[in-house]
Amino acid sequence: SVDCSFSRGVCDWKQDADDDFDWNPADRDRGDGYYMAVPAFVGHKKDMGRLKLLLTDLKPKSSYCLIFSYRLAGEKVGKLRVFLANKKTAPVWEQNTGKDERWRTEKIEIFQGAETTNSITFESERGKGKTGEIGVDNVILISGLCPED
User: Fold this and answer.
1) Per-residue pLDDT tens for 13-68?
2) Do you know which PANTHER family this protein is assigned to (predicted)?
3) What is the pLDDT of residue 87?
4) Which are the contacts of 58, defined by CB distance < 8 A and separation ≥ 6?
């Protein structure tokens, strides 16, 4: 298992230089480290911010499980999407509303073919809302299939 969380993780995170805004560190409520967030008031509607996790050493023809926490807090705050490597065409996961301000955990299976996934991108799209934020935290990559809850 590889801990890619932001405060103490070992992973290589990069802000996309070609997007509209950056993700920023935000302090956790419990005061232990931080998560990455995009406040609702940043940018204009439909603007994008991409945070990329660069992956090395993933073995071809094997499975991995990406586990992360996220929250969409605020009305019409926007969308959060996850893209794998160069499959820019369609996100492997997308969420656009939070029922409440709670953090939720998501798991995504990553199957490696002959070409390995060399990055995972978290993309935030700005919505109409003016309050709240989109947040991502506790990103972990484990080898094998995603565990059942």
Assistant:
1) 999 999 999 999 999 887 778 999 999 888 898 999 999 998 877 777 888 999 99
2) APICAL ENDOSOMAL GLYCOPROTEIN PRECURSOR, MAM DOMAIN-CONTAINING PROTEIN
3) 55
4) 64, 112, 116, 117, 118
Helix segments in 18-146, DSSP class H: none
SS3 51: strand
CA 96 from chain center: how many Å? 13
Q: CATH number of 2-143: 2.60.120.200, 3.30.750.24, 3.30.1050.10, 3.40.605.10?
A: 2.60.120.200
What is the token pair recorded at 55? 């992956």
CA 70, chain centre distance (Å): 7
Share of the chain above pLDDT 90, in %: 54
Beta bridge partners of 24: 37
Residue 10 CA to residue 89 CA, distance in Å, equals 28
